[in-house]
Amino acid sequence: MIHIKEFVFNPFMENTYVVHDDTKEAVIFDPGCYEGYEQNQLVKYIEEQDLRVSKLINTHCHIDHVLGNQFVLDKYQVPFFMHELDVPVLEAVPSYAAGYGFANYLPASPTDFFKEGDVLKIGNVAFDIIHLPGHAPGHIGFMNEKERIFIGGDVLFDGSIGRTDLPGGDHDTLISSIQNKLFKYHDEVVVYPGHGGTTTLGKEKNTNPFCAIH
């Protein structure tokens, strides 16, 4: 069984997820924890649940999703995975972090890369990796069809989609990613997005004003 814990971190109200199964192996997605109290919340949960963190993963590398990368790497000494096409996005963060109020941002470098078709294993469960560009060039999502769970980053939100006006963004590409890749999956798949609450693919297929297909 998949267990998902959501934290809302930093002024961008970014969703950080700790995902684990019954073996207690855990993966941290998009650690947006910047302040010490945020970092402490993350560590406290992991310790209370007696989890073993095995990987750090960025769905994409905009500043709000990477603020806690180096903290996690220092704390847990784990490999750091992302998509190779988002390396320039990650490398750009130090140039503007202070302007957003994050003067103490610590850059981190990936150790490994995921590509479409790879499989992420967390204990006894597996997620298929889908490349979903448009919001960011190397944006990836993680789909478990069996339990109908999708860790989606900033591709698709409840009633909205990721912004496409940042460097590397493209509106038509994002809509294509959503309609041609995501929407082929079951309506009951629950989307865990990078901001806001959960939704389902069925709801967004039918009612999303930006990308509905029905």
TrEMBL record:
GO MF term set: hydrolase activity; metal ion binding
Annotated Metallo-beta-lactamase domain ranges read 13-195
Cofactors named for this entry: Zn(2+)
Which Pfam families does this entry report, sorted A to Z? Lactamase_B (PF00753)
The protein, known as: MBL fold metallo-hydrolase
Where would one find the signal peptide in this protein? none
Which keywords belong to this entry?
A: Hydrolase, Metal-binding, Zinc
What SUPFAM superfamilies does the record point to? Answer: Metallo-hydrolase/oxidoreductase (SSF56281)
Question: Which InterPro entries does the annotation name?
Answer: MBL_Glyoxalase_II, Metallo-B-lactamas, RibonucZ/Hydroxyglut_hydro
